[in-house]
Amino acid sequence: MTERDAFGRETGSAPAAAPEPSRGRRTPASVAVVVLIVGGIVALVVGALGGKDDRTTVGNAAATTPQAPPATQQATGGYATPPKPASLLRARVLADALARLHGRGALRLLRVAPDRVDAQLVTGTGGLRNVQVTNTGQVRDFGTGGSGVAGLPTIPFGQVDSTAPARLVRTAVARSGRSPSRVDYLVLLMLGTGQSWNLYFKPDGLHFAADRHGSSVVRR
Q1: Average pLDDT over all residues of the chain
Q2: Residue 105: exposed, middle, or buried by beta-carbon count in 10 A (0-12, 13-18, 19+)?
Q3: Distance (Å, whole) CA 201 – CA 216
Q4: Distance between CA 85 and CA 102 in Å, rounded?
């Protein structure tokens, strides 16, 4: 009869040794599986870095590959970038600004810059009124001052050619060899010979003058 200890285990013979795990060679099948897994990972990463429109590849790699924010969003807030206000040197934008000035007085002088229009108006009581319109459509009325200027020559709003500034800019840029971004401002005046558009470049004030339509351009 076999003797047993307090835990019921046989004491008459040594316990059989547990079989050691096999350390033999990997089979060809196991090697093939490893190669397929590694190859799949490499293909996934390359597809995520180089693909632009492959939604499946990019979607699978999103957990491991950081994605750059879209060009139309801010990198921090995720909001679409607001559109840049249009330049008042463009005919349509300038025409809209002139419409906002209409009815505030007769036009004595008009200064046009890419970001704002400054108008000097003659009121019905003979005073000078200064009004500004920005390229976002905001109107700023700085009030009326002075008197006795009712006889000064003025320009009817209906006779202001809103296409003149852009035409003058193109000619002045071509003749000077300067970039349009260096245009500082334009001024429309009423002279004895009629309306005259005047363009000034920054930073040196290079001056070109033209007629009411932005044509017949001369360098001053």
Answers
A1: 75
A2: buried
A3: 18
A4: 22
Write down the domain spans for the chain: 1-78, 91-219
Scanning the structure block, which residue is given the tokens 């990972």? 41
What number of residues does the chain have? Answer: 220
User: pLDDT grade, residue 201 (50/70/90)?
Assistant: very high
Write out pLDDT tens, residues 135-181: 999 999 998 887 777 778 899 999 999 999 999 999 999 999 999 99
Order of all β-strands in the sheet with 139-145: 139-145, 128-134, 116-122, 106-112, 183-191, 194-201, 207-210, 218-219
Spatial separation of the C-alpha atoms in residues 119 and 112, rounded to whole Å: 9
In the numeric block, which tokens belong to residue 12? 């008459």
Q: pTM here?
A: 0.62
